[in-house]
Design brief:
mainly alpha, 12 helices, disordered C terminus, Solute carrier family 35 member B1, UDP-galactose transmembrane transporter activity
Length: 364
């Protein structure tokens, strides 16, 4: 019995040893299988994201290319000897179509959960958004479209200034170099060769149109601050954001149109020149579709990717505007344009990677 007991004990010990050696092997095999499945899922997800990125990029390019043509055609066109000077009414019509489009997307397509974003935050965002658009569109009455587009491409400048002053942010050295390139490019583009030897010769042109651009850029920066607060603190759906911001803009612009009397003048102009209705409709539809693709890009891929896409789009907008509307640009302005877009491109590529990374603890 003693010998049998020892054999049984030894057998039990061997079984125990075999099991302790087999379980880790099974665990490693299961882990390896899970990793393969995860890698396959990641590869499939990346392919889907690439397809979505291409679609969104083409949507932004096409919509805003047509948008730019129609915008310049409206603001600089000839309507039987008259010009369209109703910048507030132009933005009002655009906001109405944008709000209707976003509401239709919410009701019939996306159907997101109930929105919990505070209404005053929407109102503040709408005021900045509306003011930026009005100032930008009104600037076209005093400056050429390529200069307006190039100026609006300088959003990193107000973002940096407002980030430092309001959010107490700190930026890497490379960020300041990129912004410096943008500022130098804009200054070179706005520089006007003076034929006279007066005091104005050799100075950067800063007329009423350029001042409106600066106001528009500042309000663009404030718009970005409010929108980031919505995303970070209230997880606002992109179509809710698009709908409510444009809806509040309609209220504010409607009051402004009544107070200034521009609304009645706009109606009289449309009745006198009904062909402008077609231009306004096409302009508003392109605006709504363009905003849709931009919000999709921001939510899906982040503002960095969207910045790269819109920056590239602005270059082609300037190029086609120069070719079609024959806005003159000299060699210095083309070199300044290249400098601006180089700075924007470097900022878009390296800006995010230069930010400090969070340390993630791993459990062994």
């Amino acid at each position: 019995m003693s010998l049998n007991a020892k054999k049984a004990k030894l057998s039990d010990s061997e079984i125990t040893i075999d099991m302790t050696e087999t379980v880790p092997a099974i665990h490693e095999t299961s882990k390896s299988w899970d990793e393969r499945i995860s890698q396959t899922s990641i590869a499939h997800g990346e392919k889907q994201q690439f397809v979505s990125l291409v679609i969104y990029s083409l949507g932004i390019f096409c919509c805003y290319l047509v948008y730019g043509f129609i915008q310049e055609g409206i603001t600089r066109g000839d309507y039987d000897g008259e010009r369209f000077t109703f910048s507030q009414a132009l933005v009002f019509v655009q906001c109405v179509i944008n709000a209707i489009f976003a509401k239709a997307m919410i009701v019939f397509l996306t159907k997101p959960e109930q929105d919990k974003t505070p209404k005053p935050l929407y109102a503040a965002c709408a005021f900045c958004y509306m003011g930026a658009m009005v100032a930008s569109n009104h600037a076209l009455l005093y400056i050429a479209y390529p200069k307006q587009v190039l100026g609006k491409a300088c959003k990193p400048i107000p973002v940096m200034i407002l980030g430092v002053l309001l959010a107490h942010k700190r930026y890497p050295i490379a960020k300041y170099f990129c912004v410096l390139m943008i500022v130098l490019g804009v200054a070179g583009f706005m520089y006007k060769d003076g034929k006279d030897t007066g005091d104005s010769a050799g100075l950067v042109s800063l007329g009423f149109g350029e001042i409106l651009l600066l106001v528009s850029l500042t309000l663009d920066g404030l718009t970005g601050v409010t929108q980031e607060r919505m995303r970070a603190h209230h997880f606002t759906n992109h179509h809710y954001m698009m709908h409510n911001v444009n809806l509040w803009s309609c209220f504010l612009l409607g009051a402004a149109l009544l107070i200034t009397g521009e609304g009645s003048q706009f109606v009289q102009f449309v009745m006198k020149h009904p062909k402008v209705v077609t231009h306004l409709a096409m302009f508003s539809v392109m605006s709504a579709l363009g905003q849709h693709f931009i919000f999709l890009t921001v939510v899906t891929f982040g503002p960095l990717t969207c910045s790269v896409i819109t920056t590239t789009r602005k270059f082609f907008t300037i190029l086609f505007s120069v070719l079609i509307f024959q806005n003159p640009m000299n060699t210095r302005q083309w070199l300044s344009t290249a400098l601006v877009f180089t700075g924007l491109g470097l900022d878009s590529i390296y800006g995010k990677s230069l930010k400090p990374k969070l340390k993630i603890s791993q459990k062994e």
